Structures are given as structure tokens and as C-alpha cells.
């Protein structure tokens, strides 16, 4: 019989591309990952990996098994959630990932409500960029996470992750009436590789220009402080724009950021996940 833990490693190899990356994600040594995958090949009875020097790729049989592995792992998540529901109310650790503005603006009140309603739960929060959430959920580092999507940035799909929408918020531009009017300004943006940075770049491109980025800063409070100091213009979401510093004017744009809650596919009916979603919705509206 195929071992689900080994199937998970095969799925991660298909996504991450190297045994070293899989090992880092699941906190194994590379040799341990290789041994587990070799054992999976013996269980399957067909070659799953093609090794050329240090490069490892999946064979057609390996790709086929990954497709079935996703179904198997999803059903196991559903079974785990169903058993947890039978045991009673949610309890134990609940590992929550969130992007910084949500951590500051939403989670304090949500955690207060969550622990009051379910004192047996132990929420544990980690700040994380939404671009890294899928990998952290698949690796079991998180149970649930808040992520966001922007206009101009298509959502990244992952067959192993489910999402539920929570709310949408408008975007604001500092000190200019429109993005086009900021063509000649310096810009303050989030770090490259983040969804926020990609959204800002594409918003400028949609207005017909390539922005001149002077500062890369991830904290929106700091971004607004830099804008107040005349260091450039920036796009900020409503959650970060509730109390702008003196001297900064904000113009609401026809752009939005949508916040969703994400979890492993099949795990959404776990009592702890439902409890978390229940307190996040009212605090987000």
C-alpha cells in the first residue's frame, strides 16, 4: 500500500523541483527525502523519478501518481476534519498566517473573540507574505491563513489549497488625484516579489508609464511616513489608510484588494478552521 507521507513528498517535489527544496520545506535531510522517494518507487512498482546527475524529474508515472496523491491527501484532510468534529469543540494549537496589515488591523480583536468562544484553542500567529502561504499550508507549517488578491494581479491557483472570500477594500493613492498624475513622481513600493509590488507596477503600466521606484518598504505605516516626508507617492489599501499622518492626502481609486482565508483542501470543515473564519468575518466587515 502506498504511504501517504511519501505521497506528500512526491507532490512537493513536483511543485518545488528539487529534493533540497523539499527537504527544507518538510524539515528533513535531503538524503532522508531521497530514501523516502526511493521507497515509494518500490511500493509503486514503477519508476517515478528520472535522475540525471543531481537533477531529478518525474516520469510520466510519477506525474500520474501526483494527480492521484492530491485526491488521497484531500480525503485524508476531510477525514481528519470529520474526526475532530466528532471529538467536540475546537481545541489545541491553531497556526494562523497573516499579512502584516491584517495582523495589526484584524487579528487582535479576532483572537480575543476566538479565545473567548473557544478557550481550548491556542492560536499561534505568524506574519507571512501571501505569496508564501500555499507552500506553508502544504508543508503543515500553517493551518489557516489570510491572503489577498489585487486587481491587475491574477490569483495564483494551487489545487491543494482552498480559499473563502472575507471582504474587499479600496486602494488609495497618496497626494495625487490619479495614478496617471503620478507619472513623474518617485514611488514608494513594497519589496519586489510581493503581490503588493506587482500590483503597483501594473497599475502604473495600465496608466501608460513605468514607475521610478525610489524606496522598497513592506510596512504600510512606514510607507505613509515616507510619503509624509515627501519621499514619493504610494498605493495603500484601506486597512492601512485609516489614520494617515499629517500632510498626506489620500485619493480613493477604482482599484481593490480582496482578502480571503486559505486552508488545505479538504480541511475547511475542521472545527478550528470554522471557528477562525467565524470570528474573522464580523471583524473584517
What are its keywords?
Arc Repressor Mutant, subunit A, transcription regulation, 3 domains, transcription, 285 residues, DNA-binding transcription factor activity, D-Maltodextrin-Binding Protein, domain 2, alpha/beta, globular, 10 helices
Plain-language structure description:
There is one protein chain. This protein is an alpha/beta fold and 285 residues long. It folds into three domains: 4-84, Winged helix-like DNA-binding domain superfamily/Winged helix DNA-binding domain (Arc Repressor Mutant, subunit A), CATH 1.10.10; 92-166 and 259-284, D-Maltodextrin-Binding Protein, domain 2; 169-257, D-Maltodextrin-Binding Protein, domain 2 (3-Layer(aba) Sandwich). The chain contains ten helices and ten strands. The chain has helices at 4-16, 19-26, 30-44, 60-87, 100-105, 107-117, 133-138, 195-206, 220-228, 271-284; strands at residues 49-52, 55-58, 92-98, 121-127, 144-150, 161-174, 186-189, 212-216, 235-237, 250-264. The chain has a six-stranded mixed beta sheet. A two-stranded antiparallel ribbon has the order 1-2. Helix 8 (195-206) links the parallel strand 7 (186-189) and strand 8. The protein is globular and about 65 Å long. InterPro entries: LysR_HTH_N (IPR000847), LysR_subst-bd (IPR005119), WH-like_DNA-bd_sf (IPR036388), WH_DNA-bd_sf (IPR036390). It comes from Nonomuraea turkmeniaca.
Amino acid at each position: 500500500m502506498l504511504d501517504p507521507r511519501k505521497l506528500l513528498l512526491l507532490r512537493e517535489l513536483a511543485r518545488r523541483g528539487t529534493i533540497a527544496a523539499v527537504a527544507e520545506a518538510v524539515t528533513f535531510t535531503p538524503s532522508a527525502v531521497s530514501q523516502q522517494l526511493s521507497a515509494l518507487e518500490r511500493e509503486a512498482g514503477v519508476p517515478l523519478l528520472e535522475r540525471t546527475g543531481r537533477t531529478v524529474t518525474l516520469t510520466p508515472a510519477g506525474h500520474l501518481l501526483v494527480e492521484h496523491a492530491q485526491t488521497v491527501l484531500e480525503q485524508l484532510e476531510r477525514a481528519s476534519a470529520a474526526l475532530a468534529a466528532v471529538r467536540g469543540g475546537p481545541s489545541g494549537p491553531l497556526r494562523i498566517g497573516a499579512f502584516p496589515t491584517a495582523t495589526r488591523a484584524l487579528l487582535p480583536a479576532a483572537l480575543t473573540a476566538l479565545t473567548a468562544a473557544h478557550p481550548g484553542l491556542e492560536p499561534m500567529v505568524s506574519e507571512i507574505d501571501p505569496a508564501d502561504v500555499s507552500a506553508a499550508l502544504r508543508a503543515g507549517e500553517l493551518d489557516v491563513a489570510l491572503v489577498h488578491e489585487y486587481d491587475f494581479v491574477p490569483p495564483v491557483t494551487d489545487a491543494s489549497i482552498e480559499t473563502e472570500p472575507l471582504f474587499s477594500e479600496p486602494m488609495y493613492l497618496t497626494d495625487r488625484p490619479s495614478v496617471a498624475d503620478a507619472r513623474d513622481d518617485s514611488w514608494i513600493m513594497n519589496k519586489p516579489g510581493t503581490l503588493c509590488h506587482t500590483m503597483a507596477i501594473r497599475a502604473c503600466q495600465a496608466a501608460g508609464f513605468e514607475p521610478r521606484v525610489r524606496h522598497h518598504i513592506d510596512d504600510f505605516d512606514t510607507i505613509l511616513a515616507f510619503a509624509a516626508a515627501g519621499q514619493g507617492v504610494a498605493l495603500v489599501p484601506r486597512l492601512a489608510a485609516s489614520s494617515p499622518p499629517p500632510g498626506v492626502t489620500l485619493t480613493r481609486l477604482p482599484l481593490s484588494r480582496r482578502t480571503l482565508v486559505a486552508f488545505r483542501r479538504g480541511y475547511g470543515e475542521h472545527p478550528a478552521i470554522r471557528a477562525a473564519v467565524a470570528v474573522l468575518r464580523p471583524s473584517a466587515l
